[in-house]
Amino acid sequence: VEASGIAPAIMAAYRFEVPCLFAKKAKPSTLADGFYQTDIHSFTKNKTNRVIISEEFLGENDRVLIIDDFLANGDAALGLNHLVEQAGAETVGIGIVVEKSFQQGRKRLEEAGLKVSSLCQVASLQGNQVTLVGEGEENA
Q1: Rounded distance, CA 16 to CA 2, Å?
Q2: Cα distance between residue 124 and residue 5, in whole Å
Q3: Hey, CA dihedral for 40, 73, 112, 68, is it positive or negative?
Q4: Non-local CB neighbours of 112 within 8 Å, separated by 6+ positions
Q5: N or C: which end of the chain has fewer CB within 10 A?
Q6: In order of start, what are the domains of the chain with their CATH numbers?
Q7: What is the value of pTM for the model shown?
Q8: pLDDT grade, residue 27 (50/70/90)?
Q9: Across residues 91-119, what is the average pLDDT?
Q10: Is 134 left (phi over 0), alpha (psi -120 to 50) or beta?
Q11: CA distances from 53 to 8, 15, 39, 46 (A)
């Protein structure tokens, strides 16, 4: 979803040598007909946006890797997956830069049958302290 997830999505697309497509938060005036849409609630911004993707760019033969900057409750990734399903395409996985592991996002995505990979998993945010998953554990 525009805008903060675009940079990691572009880099993933570059790495895998595939096209990059992002969902718009508003229907452009140049888009007349033929689009998929869904409402996505942003936990971070506490706001619901209607997001759209043109049918021109997403079809039933596509395999989609959803990339986003943060995973909290999973609403954005689930909404994007809903757009993929509307197109009859397949979501092959969800790639996240920073996962807030203390929230329910991963659980909700996995319960929906989606594979999730994160670059960084935050275990907690307490007292101005960021603790990562596995941080402070003894090496075996």
Answers
A1: 20
A2: 22
A3: positive
A4: 78, 81
A5: C
A6: 6-132 (3.40.50.2020)
A7: 0.89
A8: confident
A9: 97
A10: left
A11: 18, 23, 12, 22
The tokens describing 47, both together, are 């706001």
Torsion angle in degrees (nearest 10) through CA of 106, 104, 81, 77: -90
- Looking at this protein, which amino acid is placed at residue 51? V
- Please, where are the H alpha helices in the chain? 6-16, 75-87, 105-111
49-55: long-range pairs with CB below 8 Å, 24+: 49/1, 49/25, 50/25, 50/26, 51/1, 51/23, 51/24, 51/25, 51/79, 51/80, 51/83, 52/23, 52/24, 52/26, 52/27, 53/21, 53/23, 53/24, 53/83, 53/87, 55/87
Residue whose token pair is 């940079």: 7
